[in-house]
């Protein structure tokens, strides 16, 4: 495994300057004290101007100017760009989901050599970490189930994030987008998935990708996760509850930081920039010579689950 030696800051290049990169990733890297942004690989060079950094036409032009690469592109590019950066000896933090298929994701993990993480940032939520601690402490007895739903309206109005509706770019609809976050969260809390089944369909929108999916995952000792995700619901829901033999941990809305458990009511809101703790942890992992909070070998288990959903 390669580590950085004799450097004070990690030099980053971000590939892609879309919505998530502009709102969260780039501000997160700029704010992280042991990081410096050296360039953006983008088809729109003007997007680099606000940051005072160089715009690169492609990743291969940027590799000599960085130690780490953040891949913030449509899913179709995750596999080739990650392999390219890893082959050049760089660290890689890749947007979710890992890849278009479990086979691609596995190839990325095989090449990682401890240098690749994936942006499943809900693993850094204070409320999620406290829920994990409470589970381990027996606060709800034996955990037997996790139930999640995320439902909202998405129609790419005015072309906003329209690439998500193209299966050739995104791989799938809400299953790959909002579903992957929740599948990873279930794996983070319950361990390695042993079985998975599910269905996806178009209940309202006539997209080329599904507008809804429902997933059932089996874990050790009979524990299960049920996850329902939808892009056709104007009444938004973002629910998460962990069920045990002696009680329930409620984390709803999931992004709020509210945690309720037997005898416990806490408000533990996530960071204002949801990506910042993920970037901070990734940099710390480099300097501390450890795995990041979501190493790619964990993240690909989400791709395994989505591959089972028909």
Description:
Helix content is 29%, strand content 27%. It has helices at 19-31, 59-62, 78-87, 102-112, 126-136, 167-170, 178-190, 276-288, 296-307; strands at 10-15, 35-41, 54-56, 68-71, 91-94, 116-118, 143-153, 195-201, 212-218, 224-230, 232-244, 247-250, 258-261, 264-267. The two termini are 38 Å apart. The longest helix is centred in the first third of the chain and has 13 residues, at 19-31. Strand 11 (232-244) and strand 12 form a beta hairpin. The protein is globular, with a radius of gyration of 19 Å. 47% of the residues are buried. The protein folds into 2 domains: 10-120 and 276-295, Rossmann fold, CATH 3.40.50; 126-269, Dihydrodipicolinate Reductase, domain 2 (2-Layer Sandwich), CATH 3.30.360.10. By secondary structure, it is of the alpha/beta class. The model has no long low-confidence stretch (mean pLDDT 96). Strands 3-2-1-4-5-6 form a 6-stranded parallel β-sheet, sandwiched between helices. It has a 6-stranded mixed β-sheet with strand order 8-9-10-7-11-12, with helices on one face. The protein has 9 helices and 14 strands.
Can I get a quick summary?
Helix content is 29%, strand content 27%. With 310 residues, the chain is of the alpha/beta class. It folds into 2 domains: 10-120 and 276-295, Rossmann fold (3-Layer(aba) Sandwich); 126-269, Dihydrodipicolinate Reductase, domain 2.
Biggest β-sheet description: 6 strands, parallel
CATH architecture of the largest domain: 2-Layer Sandwich
User: CATH homologous superfamily name of the largest domain?
Assistant: Dihydrodipicolinate Reductase, domain 2
Please tell me what the overall shape is: globular
Structural class: alpha/beta
